[in-house]
Fold each of these.
Amino acid sequence: MNLENKLNKVAKYFDGLQSIGDKDKYPYVLFSLTDYNPPVLPDLIEDIADLIVEKVDFKKVNILVSQADRGGGPLTFAVAKRLGLPFSLANWYPRESRGHLVVENAGSASGPGFICINDINNDSKVGIIYDLISTGGSTIALAHAVIKAGAEIKTIVSAAENINYDGFQKIENFIGVKPLSLLKYKIVEGYTQVIL
């Protein structure tokens, strides 16, 4: 299947879904990729990984980083396997282990907490992989941990960007790296609308 067909197939997973929760403050959408509701299909992860590897330059990256929960974990594994790169997944709960760093995750739509990441150091040239970026809060917290470790962020890529919250601009302002996404969507009258 060619890349355009894969992108259109991925877009269908994000398009026309109803938001839930407080629609005025933060209309939340349950996506297969992020919430496993409905359960995520392996082909979705495979298609997104193929698109990311084709569209993003990872030549200067020597390690991939994402969050362990939600869709970032399986997506990062699929991209790492294609590129032959190691990866480290950040956890929400600190664990005492060699080489770990903990930073507060205060500005995320997912809620407050801490992000703990292991074995990132000043030799690390990092590619951050995300399933979905909305407000940018958890991405900034993860990037903060990477920077605190002395590593350099080379690229940030997300399968999708929710443009209702200007998260990409907040991330670029904080890190100085412009994130990339395969597709964008917005919520209009309670439903997602994909923009390719």
Note: Residues 42-55 form the longest helix (14 residues).
Amino acid sequence: MQLPFSIEQFFEIIRNYNGAVWPAQVPLTLLAVGAVALAWWGRAWSARAIWGTLAFLWAWTGVVYQLAFFTSINPAAYAFGALFLLGSAAFLWQAMRSSPLPFTPSRDAATGVGLALIAYALVVYPVWSTVGGHAYPDLPTFGLPCPTTIFTIGMLAMVRGGRSWPLFVAPVLWSMIGLQAAFLFGVVPDLGLGVAGLAGIALALRSRGRTSRVAHA
């Protein structure tokens, strides 16, 4: 596959982004940790706050990284930015609903998969990237597309009830697009996108099946 930029340019954009937004990576990560905490020990407003957090993270990635930085070397980043903004809009719509879909972690396989993906995005991904030769500032920090997408699918795995499958569309699409970085740029931790994408498809199909059965009943 012929790309309009080189591997060196790809990592230069990541370095430029990390330098320009520092220390925003810290509060972005803390927002993610807070969302997980709210899912487990939340209050009546927790679901709204979590959906709002996901909407903000996806808007940040779409505007700050894709449109403000990545478009300088890849025209396709305009479409990528639009995808992230569409994902953000879907999450924001949930946050603004009178009864947003709840996050209800439990002792089931879906929650286990979700927690594994969250841990991968927040802990394993940066450690593996650093050990693999892409230490900061070359590190794709949280808030960049791939770790953010893995985290998002992990959170969506804990959504229960209602029609949640459309919310998986944008994250699953990016998991397919972003997975190429593992092979083209040597960002091996992005292989986790493949696992996250498959998990997202399975979870979306499960949600759609349940919705269809309820409608039929």
Note: Confidence is low (pLDDT under 50) at residues 212-217.
Amino acid sequence: MQIIFGIFLIAHGIAHLVGFVTYWRIASFEEMPYKTTLLSDRVDVGDAGIRIVGIFWLLTGLAFAVLGIGVITLQPWWYPLIIYLSIFSLLMCILGWPDARFGALINLIILAFLVLANNFGWLQLTSV
């Protein structure tokens, strides 16, 4: 279960890179088109502002990858950090709503899984 969850977190981190490459105009995706607005097009942050948001997508993606590796290698620090990162990622998805709605669902699934995993012992939370 530990390895599967770690790989899932790494994959979620890779998915976050879509926000970076879109907002930096490196690539375009039908599911997440380039735009300079947030919160369902309610707030226009302009080109510079959306690039800053893109940096946050990149950093969040990299953090998920690092935490995924931490889960797989049984590092003692991953558990509290993944809770904070999932909440931050959820907030990023809300900013990118509705384009990032699937990511919001994934973050809610991660948080629910962490609660269940903690209660049922599905994951090793610290190294032995």
Note: Residues 2-120 form one domain.
Amino acid sequence: MKALYFAWVRERVGKSEEEIAPQASVATVDDLMTWLAEKDEAYAHAFEKKSVIRAALDRAHVSHDARIAGAKEIAFFPPMTGG
């Protein structure tokens, strides 16, 4: 699965995208954020406030309890404001 990171999530992780392969027990977006946060300090910092991070699976916005099975891409980004 390709993971894409935007705005301050990207800045904290230190990259804009990467290929990831979480184990089968990582079933939801929330599980994936927890799994990523366990990788190292940069990811832990990026995902320390999971509740404010938005996610999209295959370019469709989803909630944190959405299942990730079968997704080819996940994107993480902070809340967006209009103007």
Note: The longest helix spans residues 29-37.
